[in-house]
Amino acid sequence: MTRSTTQTHRIALLAFPGVRAFDVSVITEVWGVDRTDRGVPAFDLRRVAADPAPVAMRGGLAVTPDRTLAWLPRAELIVVPGLDDHVTPAPEPVLEALRRAHARGTTVAALCGGAFTLAQAGLLDGRRALTHWRLIDLLRERYPTVRVEPDALFVEDGNLWTSAGTAAGIDLCLHLVRTVHGAEAAAAIARSMVTAPFRAGTQAQFIEQPAPADPDADALAAVREYALGHLDEPLTVPALAARAGMSPRSFARHFVAATGTTPVRWLLDQRVAAAQRLLERTGLAMPEVARRAGFGSEVTMRQHFAARLATSPRAYRASFAGAGAGVHVGVVSGGGRGGA
């Protein structure tokens, strides 16, 4: 997507029989609430369906469209909710509208089982995608040409975004806000929703929790809080492990079990997010931004921006420098739990 600083961003919530009420609510909460008084840009969210009739959802709920499929060419982002029944086919007019939108270059995002809708439309053939961890085998079985990622929160391939289940849909929606409007806007929405403002797409979607609850969870949470307050200092895994009262190996194992990612990758993700906020909010020189975010040097910061955001710190800052700036900012979101 192209970053926009002046125009209202137009988003289409694509509704058809079988879509999940939870996902419809998430999309509406992220883009359908006016938070301009908190510095969040104005959004133009439209509920789009094949016809104006209310679309029934499970539990006696319904979503009433305010636009038909003819409005989709105006949208800069189309979000497809997940499905209650993942094998139920979407209406052919909806599938054809998705094909035309993708051919135009419109960004399309599917939450959870919405990946099945994109696959049914043929958009995921030969592309990386994911869905809820319990549906991975079904997606592979029904659509063998899709390169299903087993272990991530969200991924992008060819301007098509897919996410894991439930909470990961919130992560993807916030990430899409972040890529277009910046980390501060996404954080403001997250604060309003009382949810985590930043979870990287590469984080594992399914976290094994010991039973009973991990007795070291509080120590790990305290270490993460300490690290967030000291990103400008050298933070090594042995030093963080010592603060938690664990050996480095035990600390790393418990950290992955609790967060779905390694301590090193988590630190790098938080440092990139901190650098984004500094670039958005301040006019600090690049070396100072790098120092405060804990990268040590501008070169190192630039390398991690290239790897994670597919842009440079200077280009990222330029996209917030004034009205009319437009810089494509994507994310390389591979699967897996490996460290950085």
What topology does this entry show?
Elements: E1 9-14, H1 21-31, E2 43-49, E3 55-56, E4 62-63, E5 67-68, E6 77-80, H2 92-104, E7 107-110, H3 114-120, E8 128-129, H4 136-142, E9 147-148, E10 154-157, E11 160-163, H5 167-181, H6 183-193, H7 217-229, H8 237-244, H9 248-259, H10 263-281, H11 286-293, H12 298-309, H13 313-318
Parallel strand pairs: 1-2, 1-6, 2-5, 6-7, 7-11, 8-9
Antiparallel strand pairs: 3-4, 10-11
Helix pairs in contact: 1-5, 5-6, 7-8, 8-9, 10-11, 10-12
Relevant terms:
340 residues; alpha/beta; seven-stranded mixed β-sheet; two-stranded antiparallel sheet; 13 helices; 42% helix; 11% strand; globular; disordered C terminus
Describe this structure in words.
The chain has 340 residues and is an alpha/beta fold. Helix content is 42%, strand content 11%. It contains 13 helices and eleven strands. It has helices at residues 21-31, 92-104, 114-120, 136-142, 167-181, 183-193, 217-229, 237-244, 248-259, 263-281, 286-293, 298-309, 313-318; strands at residues 9-14, 43-49, 55-56, 62-63, 67-68, 77-80, 107-110, 128-129, 147-148, 154-157, 160-163. Strand 1 (9-14), helix 1 and strand 2 (43-49) form a beta-alpha-beta unit. Residues 204-213 and 322-340 have low confidence and may be disordered.
Largest sheet features:
7 strands, mixed
Tell me the number of helical segments per DSSP (H or I, 4 or more residues long). 13
Q: What is the H/E order?
A: EHEEEEEHEHEHEEEHHHHHHHHH
Low-confidence stretches: 204-213, 322-340
Distance between the termini: 26 Å
Overall geometric form: globular
Strand order of the largest sheet: 5-2-1-6-7-11-10
Average predicted local confidence, pLDDT:
85
Oligomer: single chain
Number of DSSP-assigned strands = 11
Task: Tell me the fraction of residues in β-strands, as a range.
Answer: 5-15%
Bin the helical content: 40-55%
